[in-house]
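Re: the multi-chain job from yesterday

Posting the exact lines I submitted so nobody has to dig through the queue logs.
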Amino acid sequence: MRFLYISILAILSVFLLPSVHAQNGFINSLQVNYHTVTFDVTKGGGVKLNHWWKVKEKSRFQSGLQLSAMVQPGASPNVSGDVSEFNANGRLLLFTGWERGFGEKQKWYGTLEGFVGVRAYYIGGSLNQTANNFERNFNKTTFRGDFGSRFGWGYRINERWGIDLGLTTSWLHINHPLGFWTGLLFWSPDVLSVVELGVNVRL
Amino acid sequence: MKKYSFGIILLLMLGWGCESTVLRNAQEESFEMTSTNTGRNYRMDILLPPDYDASQTYPSVYLLDGHWHYLNVAADAQQLMRNDRIRDVIIIGIAYADFATNTLGGFGEISSLRIDDLTAQKNSDEAERGGDAANFRKFIVEELIPEIDTRYSTGDAERTLMGHSLGGYFGLWEMFNFTENSPFDYIESGSPALWWADGFLMDMEEQVANAGSRLPFRLHTTMGTLESVVWNAFFDEFEERLGTNGYDDLTYIFERYPRGHSAMAETGFKEGLKYFFGN
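And the result, structure tokens for all chains:
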């Protein structure tokens, strides 16, 4: 059923959004972020390009395309022998949602967006385990679809520059009893919740 | 109202962890038992087939870590039974009774308890928890199975043990430790923690092979390709050793999916149900 919802969202994004009045210029803002996962297990960076479909006094309805890459240590349990491991993942995500200003001068702003996209993961390395006397290599690239939400909070220094703090959360495992928190608690790269810290530049 | 809508949506999103406790339109029951073997209080969540008939006998599926997995497995099982994808079965989810599954505190408590119950030895000499599987197994075999067989129309045939991670480890430990004396016929071992206690289960497998013991089981085991090098390396090695040692009575299948550790559980359980009971 979740794929039905994703498909509907994707179709709405493609066909309905262009009918809304667009601002001048296709890319209206740019976000460059440092990425890290809660508990500091994953690090990387990303760029998000936003297009404002509709601008009101305090809010903007926008879509954004984010490309990011992260590396992370493996979840290597304590075993005898040698373990080498390199993990990396890249994401291409399409966001749609609102940005809203707060305060008299709207210096503070929040964003709430949903996303769909694709992730590519690479896990590679080897285990030379002495207790059971075996050596194994494992190398695998895995692609997965993804969907979820992004909550952002920021402060606008001037008309052009702002600083952002965001939390992008995959909802792939939302059926789990811990729901939203699953991505924060489990080391499981397909349910990542990523904290983003960076700048938001209005073009 | 409009002023606060942004905050309300955010709070709803953060509160998504509030679980529902029952399935819609399902025949479900639950009861609690305090084990004389472990001293712990367990809650059993039971899913009966859509047209449960007490005059028939159904296979029983004992699901470890029911606090986390019962709802997903029961939902999948109900759908599969209604669509005639699998034969009718009874699902028994084994959960810790005194802890909320959808709170961070409950998660922590359950995580500690399951290390005790699901492992036959501590992960290392320094570890504080673990190693109480023998008593937990006594609870299942001596207390729970007789209770289930009394309450419901279940029998000895096709009794199934399902577990994920340390639960997957527990299923393999049951298979290798009790061999033909196990009350279980089918073992679903999702993402088994074969690395636990420095590969202790691999040693057990070698001992069973050297002793020429029978393994009269059907085994369905799964691993996510996103579960790191160590998990996958042990899984690959384990598959090769089972094949090399060639157990005549053991029917098994190893499957891999593009999943991480936590997301692998539901997929593995669903595929296990189809493997064991598929029409």
